[in-house]
């Protein structure tokens, strides 16, 4: 950024100036104009570029810091953070839904979809009989165009077979609700740290011996039927679950 760039003035938008500046900087970070660990222009440079006061710049930077898009180093300035997914577990929502609400770009790349014999955990979750099968969906999830998780999802065949031919680049939860008319209820979630296997290393660009945060999630319909059993393997440096608990 330099002083030759277009400045923002009161009246250009009904939004406060700090919101306009925050949006501009956020867009440049998400688009890769500013890359992870790159130092942002100084407060004085930003003041000159946007034609605003220091307090306005600091408010915009504070908001970006709270969103996890930048971090500060004492005496050195503000730097672009490595993209990190932060998902609140107080509400059942898909990865894309959670990231979009934070201003991030989230997409999925389908690796495979197949009907197969269920692994033991999925068979137990769905209370399947011997010989029953499931539909497995395997995808890589991207946050701001960087791979952050390998998702392996299992569905009962009456639901999973309907996913063949569907666009699976986004969240499956809204598809279940809007296309299949299945109201979602709740989910059981387990979280553990484990070493990445070869497949996970390959798709998430990890080195041998690196750990991932593995989330096991069993989602139920509102009627109480288990409908989606998943293993979500996140890069340890790219994901954080956030929740609040109360002592009552």
From TrEMBL:
Annotated ranges, domain HTH gntR-type: 15-83
InterPro entries reported for this sequence: Bact_HTH_transcr_reg, Chorismate_lyase_/UTRA_dom_sf, Tscrpt_reg_HTH_GntR, UTRA, WH-like_DNA-bd_sf, WH_DNA-bd_sf
Gene3D superfamilies: Chorismate lyase-like, Winged helix-like DNA-binding domain superfamily/Winged helix DNA-binding domain
GO molecular function: DNA binding; DNA-binding transcription factor activity
Organism domain of life: Bacteria
Keywords: DNA-binding, Transcription, Transcription regulation
CDD domains documented for this protein: WHTH_GntR
GO BP annotations listed: negative regulation of DNA-templated transcription
The name this protein goes by in its record: GntR family transcriptional regulator
Protein species of origin: Hydrocarboniclastica marina
């Amino acid at each position: 950024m330099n002083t030759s760039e277009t400045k923002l003035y009161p009246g250009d938008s009904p939004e406060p100036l700090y919101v306009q500046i925050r949006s501009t900087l956020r867009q440049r970070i998400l688009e890769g104009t500013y890359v992870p660990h790159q130092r942002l222009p100084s407060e004085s440079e930003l003041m000159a570029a946007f034609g605003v006061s220091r307090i306005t710049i600091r408010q915009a930077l504070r908001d970006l810091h709270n969103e996890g898009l930048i971090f500060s180093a004492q005496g050195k300035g503000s730097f672009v953070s490595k993209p990190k997914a932060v998902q609140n577990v107080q509400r059942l929502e898909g990865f894309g839904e959670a990231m979009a609400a934070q201003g991030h770009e989230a997409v999925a790349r389908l690796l495979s979809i197949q009907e197969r014999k269920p692994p033991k955990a999925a068979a137990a979750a769905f209370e399947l009989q011997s010989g029953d099968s499931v539909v497995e969906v395997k995808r890589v999830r991207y946050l701001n165009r960087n791979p952050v998780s390998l998702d392996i999802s299992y569905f009962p065949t009456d639901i999973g077979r309907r996913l063949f031919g569907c666009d699976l680049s986004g969240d499956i939860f809204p598809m279940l609700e809007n296309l299949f008319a299945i109201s979602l209820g709740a989910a059981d979630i387990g979280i553990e740290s484990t070493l990445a296997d070869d497949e996970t290393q390959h798709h998430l660009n990890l080195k041998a011996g690196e750990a991932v945060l593995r989330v096991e999630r069993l989602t139920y319909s509102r009627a109480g039927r288990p409908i989606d059993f998943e293993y979500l393997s996140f890069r340890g440096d790219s994901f954080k679950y956030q929740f609040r608990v109360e002592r009552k």
